[in-house]
Amino acid sequence: MNNKKSVLFLKLFFLLLCFIILYSKVNSDIGRYILILMVMPMALLFEQVNLTLFMIISSASIAMAIFTFGLTAYETIIIAAIFLVSIPMLSVFSTKKSKLKINDGLKRKNDELKFYKEELLNERNSLVNERESLEKKLERIIHFYIISKDLNKNIYVPRNVANTVLNILSSRQGVEYCLITRRFVNKQGVDRLQMFSRLNEATKKKWYKLVNGNKEIENLQKPTIMNKLFEIEHKPVIVWPVIAGLNWDFRIYLVVKSEYSQLYVEEGEIFIPHLKLSAKRIGLVYELEEKSRIDGLTGLYLKRYFIEKLNSEYERVKRYGTNFYLIMLDIDYFKKVNDTYGHLVGDKVLKEIAHIISSSVRPGDIVGRYGGEEFIILLPSISKEAVIGIAEKIRKTVEKTVFKENNIEFATTISIGICEYMPNTKPTKLIDNVDKALYESKKKGRNRTTIYNL
Where does a domain end: 107, 123, 141? Predict the structure, then answer.
């Protein structure tokens, strides 16, 4: 502000100096009269119209007129009249101009404030949207955390895990249906694909054909929309890879409505880590449980666990009116093998025969080591002819197998007994019956199969 005043007075000084110089050079009264009249509006030349400045200049002009023409001269009266008329006019002009300047300044400030307000509103809306998005994500994380905790409760087998996940995901908004596949290596070392779903057989076969051996799906590391699977239901299919190791590698397939496809890709990124942790935990527990049930030498179920499965199957058959068979087999003259070649060789024979049995039965059949050289098999929902076929396949394969030890080759045989489930016959009695059939095979010369008859 002080700098502006200094500039103003410098301008004033310069103008008055010019006036004095011009005044001294003019000799006629008319010239001086005109010059004095010109001084009065000098204040209008300034950037800011200043009423006080104008009055000073005008007063100086009147004083100069009195000095030049006298107090009562015509020229002095005219100059004074112009001065008196100009003051109110200039006052109005100055006020209007100031108001215009003030209004322009206010308008500019108002525009600036509006601009800042819009920016703040936009930033606020952006923060609100981000907050809502984070709240939804947090809600989903908490939801999936609760699901994962529930998943860990009393679930020790792949089918139970899969069914629990199917129930959870099938009920979510936008999901038409889902299915789960599990790639694993069975006890015989064969790579298999297991499928869990509630689909009809025709649709299951279509899915199996598309996903079995599909390297693109097997190599997935994150949730992905698989366009190649669109042909199944003509809807987006999202694949969640749950790779937990320990033979617990799953692929979850979600058939969803189009508008939900991206949502379930995002949800997969949240849910999959929880599923992996749950699967690893369940897998470890399952492995421990399995080890407590498995015979360390042969890899078959121990007698205690086999009896548990037999009791469960017995109750199931009573409820649904189906059937099952038992096969019991024993290695002929096994003591002679141990005595001749040693117990280490005898263990090799046991392992090889266990492998032959496991390779000969169906998926779902239960094989156990019942005693030292005795094995027992539970075959649910099967015909008599099929049971005999399996028993004979095992017997003939063992008969043809050649064992080698220290450049010596030898062979062995097995004797087999078979019995069928009979209503109102307890599991202990069924085991007694199949043992009697096995004894008959031994009694009749060994290396044969005998069916128990009442």
Answer: 107
